[in-house]
Amino acid sequence: MLSLILAQATVPATEAASGITKLVNDFGINLPGILAQMLSFCLVAFVLWRFAFKPVIATLDERKQKIESGLKYAEEMKAKLEATQQESATIIKKAQLEGAKFIEEARKAAKEFSDREQKAATERANDIIAKAQQAIELEHKKMIADTRGEIARLVVAITQRVLAKELNDADRTRYNESAARELTSV
């Protein structure tokens, strides 16, 4: 077909016009029908473009913008999430350090309390021991005094019996008093 068209191109213009008419007739081309189809195609294309493609394209553009804004929002949220995670990690680390500090302070306070109570218990025990020693000392002195009194009484009684036979009453009384004084002074 191309060779036929090229062969026709070399023919003079009048012959070309008659050749195109002949060609149109040979192939069965209906020129008013083609023009009507072209006009109809243009109208359909315009209507589709105006009422179908343009709104679809606008909807696609709108969706594209929404998707882009959604992606941008997701990136912002991701950044905020990372910042929040870092902040929470910092807060947790700070809380752990404060917790360790509180635990250490509690241990120190417990040790100090234990030391104070142990010291107080030791002081109370020493006071009890000192009081017991004082009581023992007083009891010892009392026993010594009682023992001296008993010994003095026994000495006087024995001396009275021994000397009762040889001394008179006045000498005995004087002798008993002097012996009792000597025993109580010892």
Structural features, described:
This protein has 186 residues and is mainly α. 93% of the residues lie in helices and 0% in strands. The chain has helices at 2-9, 13-27, 31-163, 169-185. Helix 3 (31-163) packs antiparallel against helix 4 (169-185). The longest helix has 133 residues, at 31-163. It is rod-shaped. The relative contact order is 0.03. The model has no long low-confidence stretch (mean pLDDT 83).
Topology:
Blueprint: H1 2-9, H2 13-27, H3 31-163, H4 169-185
Helix pairs in contact: 3-4
Low-confidence stretches: none
Radius of gyration, whole Å: 69 Å
| SSE run | HHHH
Largest sheet: none
Shape verdict: rod-shaped
CA distance, first residue to last residue: 167 Å
Give the amount of beta strand, in percent: under 5%
Number of strands: 0
Average pLDDT rating: 83
Give the structural class: mainly alpha
The DSSP helix count reads 4
Helical proportion, percent range: over 70%
In brief, what are we looking at here?
This protein is an all-alpha fold and 186 residues long. Helices cover 93% and strands 0% of the residues.
Note the main attributes of this structure:
mainly alpha; 0% strand; single chain; 186 residues
